[in-house]
């Protein structure tokens, strides 16, 4: 079932086209990875999904134009994990996750037992409950990423959109994050849309992969279809040979 549909989305800055004729239909309950080289329009596209950026009439959520959604209603549909996360104030991790409940209340001081329970559940799912009393400023980048994911999960939106959540994580924490997202996708039936630079992880965990190139969608396909040397060579300016791609292992040998 269609959850989020984008029709003929174009966007330019100072007469430079950033997004060109974007058409894509995100289905409910699926896991999507958006890949592509730096500067291909991935983050700009994500920002349109979560902020509209003045072109809301090109984006439809449950069949309704984004322009028809109030902020509170939108928050019940989509939660967002941004690429860059910083906190100047010394919040505890519990308080940061509690911010995901803001759309249900007007203030953190009006939270009830249900809200506290949702925070606890989200932190346990993301393995961050042991950090509940620790300052957000005193934890590692990997832990912070999981806390922000808990905040998004606590929001109870139908879809979680993430912009490069694996950035600055080592391979162990990257795999841990992907497993966690897949578990959330399957067990809680959440639609996941994420920007991901690791093609191998995108292949392993995604239902669909969307390839951006020069502001356009080059291809939308099933994970096994991404292992196309012509496609990858064109998008990433590589020189892959047939022997670089292992179809059985879903692995690309770049070296």
Automatic annotation (TrEMBL):
<dbReference type="InterPro" id="IPR003593">
    <property type="entry name" value="AAA+_ATPase"/>
</dbReference>
<keyword id="KW-0067">ATP-binding</keyword>
<dbReference type="Pfam" id="PF00005">
    <property type="entry name" value="ABC_tran"/>
</dbReference>
<dbReference type="InterPro" id="IPR027417">
    <property type="entry name" value="P-loop_NTPase"/>
</dbReference>
<dbReference type="GO" id="GO:0016887">
    <property type="term" value="F:ATP hydrolysis activity"/>
</dbReference>
<dbReference type="GO" id="GO:0005524">
    <property type="term" value="F:ATP binding"/>
</dbReference>
<feature type="domain" description="ABC transporter">
    <location>
        <begin position="4"/>
        <end position="239"/>
    </location>
</feature>
<keyword id="KW-0547">Nucleotide-binding</keyword>
<dbReference type="InterPro" id="IPR003439">
    <property type="entry name" value="ABC_transporter-like_ATP-bd"/>
</dbReference>
<protein>
    <submittedName>
        <fullName>ABC transporter ATP-binding protein</fullName>
    </submittedName>
</protein>
<keyword id="KW-0813">Transport</keyword>
């Amino acid at each position: 079932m269609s959850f989020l549909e984008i029709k003929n989305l174009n966007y330019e800055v100072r007469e430079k086209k950033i997004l060109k004729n974007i058409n894509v239909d995100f289905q409910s309950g699926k896991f999507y990875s958006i890949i592509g080289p730096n500067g291909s329009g991935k983050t700009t596209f994500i920002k349109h999904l979560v902020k509209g950026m003045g072109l809301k009439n090109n984006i439809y959520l449950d069949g309704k134009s984004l322009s028809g959604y109030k902020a509170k209603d939108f928050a019940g549909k989509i939660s967002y994990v941004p690429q860059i996360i910083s906190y100047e104030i010394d919040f505890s991790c519990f308080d940061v996750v509690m911010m995901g409940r803001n759309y249900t209340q007007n203030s953190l001081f009006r939270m009830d037992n249900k809200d506290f329970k949702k925070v606890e559940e989200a932190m346990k799912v993301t393995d961050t409950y042991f950090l509940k009393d620790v300052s957000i400023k005193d934890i590692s980048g990997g832990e912070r990423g999981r806390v922000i994911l808990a905040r998004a999960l606590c929001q109870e939106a139908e879809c979680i959109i993430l912009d490069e959540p694996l950035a600055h994580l080592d391979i162990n924490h990257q795999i841990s994050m992907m497993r966690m997202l897949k578990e959330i996708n399957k067990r809680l039936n959440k639609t996941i849309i994420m920007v991901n630079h690791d093609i191998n992880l995108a292949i392993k965990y995604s239902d669909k992969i969307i390839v951006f190139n020069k502001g356009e969608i080059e291809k939308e396909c099933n994970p096994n279809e991404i292992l196309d040397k012509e496609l990858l060579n064109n998008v990433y300016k590589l020189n892959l040979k047939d022997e670089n791609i292992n179809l059985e292992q879903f692995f690309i040998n770049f070296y």
